[in-house]
Write a structure and sequence with these properties.
This protein is α+β, with helices and mostly antiparallel strands. The protein has one helix at about 50-65, and strands at about 25-30, 35-40.
């Protein structure tokens, strides 16, 4: 499942939220009326496995809400 779409792991999103330079916002969407943001500190390593785990979490979350 391609839940997040294409992500820019270097620059992230310009979301205007004013996070520090050490934080990258990867993804931001409304999920069942909840503004949801996936972000990380630059020292962290983002892997396919990590994103797959978030995909599973959001998928189960959506199935339990609807």
């Amino acid at each position: 499942m391609n839940f997040f779409g294409e992500l820019d792991l270097v620059n992230g999103l310009d979301d205007g939220m004013g996070f520090s330079n050490d934080v990258v916002v990867l993804w931001e969407e409304e999920v069942n009326g909840i503004n949801t943001t996936l972000w990380y500190g630059k020292p962290a390593k983002i892997t396919t496995e990590l994103l797959d785990n978030f995909t599973k979490f959001f998928t189960k979350f959506l199935m339990n809400i609807t």
